[in-house]
Amino acid sequence: MIGGIGMPELLVILLIVLIIFGAGKLPEIGAGLGKGIRNFKKATQEEPELAEKKTEKIEASASGTEKPAS
């Protein structure tokens, strides 16, 4: 069960999508959805790393000893 949606509801949604887009478009839709999820995960992982690098840079400049750029 995903967020209150059970198996019968998912099957109805899949059937509606199949009727609207047809069987030929489903692989394209799935690929696009997969790319979107992958990009979202990548962005959420990069954000904390970027914030940590900025924090280190600010701390280094505050103490007067900057690290060499890598």
TrEMBL record:
Where, per UniProt, does this protein localize? Cell membrane
Q: How does it sit in the membrane?
A: Single-pass membrane protein
Signal peptide stretch: none
Q: Which Pfam families match?
A: TatA_B_E
Instruction: Tell me which GO cellular component terms the UniProt record holds.
Output: TAT protein transport complex
Q: Name one GO biological process term.
A: protein transport by the Tat complex
Could you say which protein family the record assigns here? Answer: Belongs to the TatA/E family.
Q: What is this protein called?
A: Sec-independent protein translocase protein TatA
Please name the taxonomic classification of the source.
Bacteria, Pseudomonadati, Thermodesulfobacteriota, Syntrophobacteria, Syntrophobacterales
